[in-house]
Amino acid sequence: MPPPPATPEALDDAHDFAETVRLLSGLAATPGREDRPERLKLDEITLLPVAFNVRCEESLAEHHLMTLSKLLKSTQDLDPVTVMVVGSRFILIDGHHRHEAYRRSPDRRDIPVRYFEGPPEDAILEAARTNTRAVLAMDNRQRQDLAWRLTLCGLYSKRRIAEASGVSHAQVAIMRKAMKTLGEQAHDFDRWWQARRAADGKCNEGMSEEDREMWIEEQAQAYADRLAKAFSTKLARNPEIAALALEYHFGRKLPDLLKELNARTGEVLDDDEEDEF
Asked: In the chain, what are the domains?
């Protein structure tokens, strides 16, 4: 039986890697659109995870998505995703987590893109090369410290500092105020939290509530990074197993964990649920 002709409809129904590549190659041989917009609407982009999910994961990494979503709230854009033009379609070949982070953001309707100009076979290799490079996203503390160092330079606008570091414009304004307050002493502090406390006149005092919250966030981010490195998306894909593993780990402290989770999600345990512990 001959394989089905290469059509957009056949591409949408493809569930096999080799078949998807064959269909992409067939469609790429047909005349395609010539426009190359710098931004595309999210629903204009076709996702083909069967071909371009080079990590072979069943779902996206929630930990990485949360990091990108937080970054997206404080910056104009994430790095462009990579697409290729096949016929009338824009096919996403790299940037699935970024695309999903934009999709989850209520005020984002389009996304910046760059174009891969080459055959589909090479596009798959490009996606593989991109994803095998060692990439480590900055955590919140590192972004804050970077913004502080850029502020100390005195060379950049608030907008450029915010975009480069991923902190908000308001946060850069706070850093500028602290630098003005500290004067020459500002350059004695490499860490933003230390500079902020010094500007507030709290060098010799205990940790403030704001400092404590930042410290908690830094520690939680570090733990989350270690979990992601150890388990990838296994915990997110298997919440029942993850819950049982946490129960084993926390033991009698499990009710304390549940209370913290409830406080962060806004959910409240009813009396019957609390009595079970």
From this structure: 8-132 (3.90.1530.10), 140-213 (no CATH)
